[in-house]
Amino acid sequence: MAKVSVLNVAVLENPSPFHSPFRFEISFECSEALADDLEWKIIYVGSAESEEFDQILDSVLVGPVPAGRHMFVFQLQRNILASNPRVTRFHINWDNNTDKLEAIETQDPSLGCSLPLNCTPIKGLGCIPGLLPENSMDCI
Length: 140
Prior knowledge:
chaperone, chromatin regulator, ASF1-like_sf, three-stranded antiparallel beta sheet, mainly beta, ASF1-like, two-stranded antiparallel sheet
């Protein structure tokens, strides 16, 4: 028989705003007093297929724990997005034609024009001639 049984895990404030912390109310029972600390971890499971993408978001030690029922609230800040950023955009070069790839990378669909490599559009403003290098006539 187990010395510790988890009775309930409740997600508090669900749903909650994106920037608010995660809060979990954890209830557990100890069948006998524990002299050592219990370690609790909140793990973000990145993939059901493998533990390779799992992230330990936070851990806490609770103890010593007397026999009986206990409850605590585990709160942690959301840091899933910041801790392991991934590639969100990449090109697949099907025909190995680098000229087409460079042309695609220098196009801004909102402007409807092809930009030279040294010309960077400002979102929401389009091409502003006063802000571009002298050789950037392709942007006008």
